[in-house]
Design brief:
With about 425 residues, this protein is α+β, with helices and mostly antiparallel strands. The protein is built from 18 helices and 14 strands. The chain folds into two domains: about 130 residues; about 290 residues, DD-peptidase/beta-lactamase superfamily (Beta-lactamase, 3-Layer(aba) Sandwich). About 40% of the residues lie in helices and about 20% in strands.
């Protein structure tokens, strides 16, 4: 578990679960071995879970319910705003419908609302008075959900959105439900699936090996950790791929992309129905931070954009990146981005499905979904992405009966932010519907 909310790439990720983390440092300190099925909850945990209903309804005492460590990270106003969003979407909270202990002091809950449910992970302090130190809302769902209701909610999103649910097997992905699935849209960090697919291709062709060692390249902005490592640190390509997918490490991505060869990554992206040329994350940050470069990129052809990157390579590689570019309104999301349609992303996920076991294992490290939903599948692979005004989530899943599916979706708007929590809930519902097929 990670403390507090993670930074987004491009101010992403989403919610690295693309779920909403509300937690204090004590969550990270839970022993790994304590998270086990069949764990026995302390009575204080059950009592705290029952009292959560009043908190989510705005009637409980925030100061009494939460530990100081949590209150320092999540102000009362922030929690109230989240609770209000849930009530708007689902009605009033009513009761705890399911309670599954993951340790003596932590549990996965289903909170019943008038019109739906919310999945919640709760952690409390083992010491009296057992204040709550962690709270994670991992997903929401309406009651009596259906494909028709899901599509209606995608259509109701302000701005532009698209999604697709597909059965995978022999031949092309077979559509189960689609909405604007053939329309290319910004991907954010989900473009990193192109890089993973090209690495998998090179490994399969014996052009490269997972244990190959390379040196870390020029640092990019977070998300990630490699930007803090000493320049030239040695690392395997498998480590780079793992960090790129599981924590959306931008410096790992750029290093891997240039190691594999820009022309080869471009070829993979084009074959997968994506936009080219494929920018590194550093290039994307630099282009958005320079009005002249943004304008030139937007107006340029594919060849002109490649020339622009070459001509400005030194400036981009040595210049200081400005993270505040992503602190406000959406910036050039219709041009300085990576693009593909939901249908194209489903095809890419199908390609990764048939890759080697290491590729699939990397894709599954961060399932990016409510644990209660993930447990309904044999396998869950995930990559998401976003920046202000953009969110995209892509899932490769295998049902308990062995059938494979892809669930891909995007939402973007140039006039303001998107609601990551709302979108993650929609994709969680899509997966729940797939699991119930």
């Amino acid at each position: 578990m990670l403390p507090v909310a993670e930074e987004r790439l491009e101010a992403e990720e989403l919610m690295r679960g693309l779920a909403l983390w509300l937690m204090a440092m004590a969550v990270a300190l839970l022993p790994v071995g304590a998270m086990a099925q069949g764990a026995v909850a302390d009575p204080a945990l059950r009592a705290k879970a029952d009292a959560l209903v009043a908190i989510l309804d705005g009637r409980g005492s925030y100061d009494t319910y939460f530990a100081a460590s949590f209150r320092d990270k999540v102000p009362a106003a922030q929690l109230s705003a989240i609770a209000a969003q849930l009530k708007t979407a689902l009605g009033a909270p009513q009761k705890i419908e399911t309670f599954t202990a993951t340790s003596a002091w932590s549990a996965d809950l289903t909170v019943g609302y008038a019109r739906g449910t919310a999945s919640v992970r709760l952690v409390i302090d083992p010491a009296p008075p057992h204040a709550a130190t962690g709270l994670l809302i991992t997903g929401t769902a309406p009651r009596d959900d259906s494909m028709a209701k899901l599509e209606a909610e995608f259509r109701a999103l302000p701005g532009a959105s698209g999604f697709g649910l597909y059965a995978l097997g022999q031949g092309k992905p077979a559509p189960i439900l689609e909405y604007r699935a053939d329309v290319a849209a910004p991907l954010g960090s989900a473009f990193k699936l192109w890089v993973l697919a090209e690495l998998a291709r090179q490994v399969a062709a014996d052009e490269r090996h997972w244990a190959d060692v390379v040196t870390v390249g020029a640092p990019s902005l977070p998300s990630g950790v490699l930007q803090t490592w000493p320049a030239g640190s040695p690392v395997t390509v498998q480590t780079l791929a793992t960090m790129m997918i599981s924590i959306s490490d931008n410096t790992a991505t750029d290093t891997l992309l240039t190691t594999l060869g820009r022309a080869k990554v471009d070829a993979m992206a084009a074959a997968a129905g994506g936009s080219v040329p494929v920018m590194t994350t550093r290039e994307m940050f630099a282009l958005k931070g320079d009005a002249a470069l943004t304008k030139a990129w937007a107006a340029g052809s594919v060849d002109a954009r490649r020339t622009l990157l070459v001509d400005n390579a030194v400036k981009i590689s040595t210049g200081k990146l400005d993270p505040t570019v992503f602190a406000g309104k959406p910036v050039a999301i219709d041009s300085v981005e990576w693009f593909a349609s939901p249908a194209a992303m489903a095809g890419l996920l199908d390609r990764l499905r048939t890759a080697d076991p290491t590729t699939r294992a990397i894709l599954a490290i961060n399932p990016g979904i409510d644990p209660a939903i993930a447990k309904r599948f044999r396998y869950v692979g995930f990559k998401g992405g976003g920046e202000p005004g953009v969110v995209a989530l892509d899932y490769l899943v295998q049902a308990k009966d062995g059938r494979w599916y892809a669930a891909t979706g995007n939402w973007h708007r140039a006039d303001g932010p998107v609601n990551d929590m709302r979108f993650a809930g929609l994709m969680g519902r899509a997966l729940t519907l797939l699991a119930g097929r």
